[in-house]
Specification:
The chain is of the alpha/beta class. It has three domains: about 100 residues, Orthogonal Bundle (Arc Repressor Mutant, subunit A); about 100 residues, D-Maltodextrin-Binding Protein, domain 2 (3-Layer(aba) Sandwich), CATH 3.40.190; about 100 residues, D-Maltodextrin-Binding Protein, domain 2, CATH 3.40.190.10. Helix content is about 45%, strand content about 20%. The chain has 13 helices and twelve strands. The strands form three sheets. Strands 3, 4, 5, 6, 7, 10, 11 and 12 form an eight-stranded mixed beta sheet that branches. The chain has a two-stranded antiparallel sheet with strand order 1-2. A two-stranded parallel ribbon has the order 8-9. The chain is globular. It starts with a helix and ends in a 16-residue tail after the last helix. The N terminus and C terminus are likely disordered.
């Protein structure tokens, strides 16, 4: 008798389970926080990567609507997925308010984990692609413009000679953008300068220094001077760089500290372009000394020392946890911070290949 009832029991059990699932979906859509969260049994939880990515975008945009738009989802569908996540974890992840949403403490923790996982998955895809094309790994480097034109090209050439089978992807970006790219796993190694606050979750080592100088037209009233102060230059028009960049904000703060503002005549995106604007007589510019010397001779410009302590800016290498980086990225970090043949003063764990 018991054996004869067995198939019927299993059949109706499946139907009951399907009905329960439909009921759960309907109630979750009606209420983002079910009264009784799903009990979490170790080893049985299945996480939806799409929903996790959606949650990360909602946290970054502080809006369910904006996060949903990134994934071509309706707001209702996005809300349902977030409700499912909250139901699965058994805790509230987002708090809604008039201007959007904010993550709870649990939501912040989940967001940090998701960002790390997504970065690792992206890196895995990149590495596998490079293996398919015959190389043995890829290092993604983000750098500010100063390092790009000063010392990084020679250092990358040295790395290529030492490790000919490792590919390199180099992108120029501001220090602020580089910090975000490294933190989110979009880049393995970054070259930055302390012109904006550093992110506490990253690791930093000294790489090089950049001394900045004033470039002036040959006939400028300051052209006969060997050195000038920043205050003296502010009496004249300036050629500015990227609006809102770290160096631009630093110069603006220094001018405000002197009780004035910079008179920006024109803005450009590079040091060579800035020097060419100086050649045209549009104003002065402040660029790394190496770039100033490189262009001054060809354009007939004058290079003046900037008599300010902050004219010398350190350049730093940054990355996430070294122990979590692929071997090619660890090799790059070691190469950059030992570029002069001496190891950085900070003990560096996990640098051995």
């Amino acid at each position: 008798m018991q054996n004869r009832r067995g198939p019927y029991k299993r059949y109706f059990g499946k139907r009951a389970f399907a009905a329960t699932e439909r009921y759960t979906a309907a109630t979750a859509a009606a209420s983002p926080r079910p009264a009784e969260p799903l009990p979490i049994v170790q080893g049985t939880m299945r996480l939806d990567l799409f929903s996790l990515h959606l949650f990360a975008d909602i946290v970054e945009t502080r809006s369910i609507g904006k996060g949903a738009k990134r994934h071509n989802l309706a707001v209702s569908a996005a809300s349902k997925r977030i409700a499912d996540l909250e139901y699965q974890f058994g805790t509230e992840l987002l708090r809604r308010h008039a201007r959007g949403v904010l993550p709870t403490e649990a939501g912040e923790t989940l967001y940090g984990r998701i960002r790390q996982v997504l970065g690792d998955l992206h890196q895995t895809a990149v590495e596998m692609s490079e293996y398919a094309h015959g190389t043995r790994g890829l290092v993604r480097v983000c750098s500010n413009l100063t390092a790009m034109v000063q010392c990084l090209p020679q250092d990358l050439a040295g790395f290529a000679q030492e490790h000919p089978h490792i590919g390199m992807a180099l992108q120029e970006s501001s220090t602020a953008a580089t910090l975000q790219a490294v933190a989110k796993g979009h880049a393995d190694v970054g070259i930055v300068a302390p012109v904006v606050p550093y992110l506490p979750e990253l690791h930093y080592w000294h790489y090089s220094t950049a001394t900045h100088a004033v470039v002036a037209p040959a006939g400028h009233p300051l052209a006969r001077r060997a050195a000038v102060t920043y205050a003296e230059t502010l009496a004249y028009p300036y050629i500015g760089l990227e609006t809102g960049g770290g160096w631009d904000r630093l110069l603006s703060r220094k001018a405000e500290g002197l009780g004035t503002v910079m008179n920006i005549k024109v803005r450009v995106n590079g040091f060579e372009a800035a020097c060419r604007m100086v050649e045209a007589g549009l104003g002065l510019t402040l660029v790394p000394h190496s770039s100033a010397v490189l262009h001054a001779g060809a354009l007939g410009l004058k290079v003046l020392a900037l008599d300010e302590e902050w004219a010398v800016v350190p350049l730093d290498v940054c990355c996430r946890d070294l122990s979590q980086l692929p071997v090619p990225a660890r090799l790059m970090v070691r190469h950059l911070i030992t570029r002069n043949g001496t190891r950085a003063s900070t003990k560096i764990e996990g640098l051995a290949a």
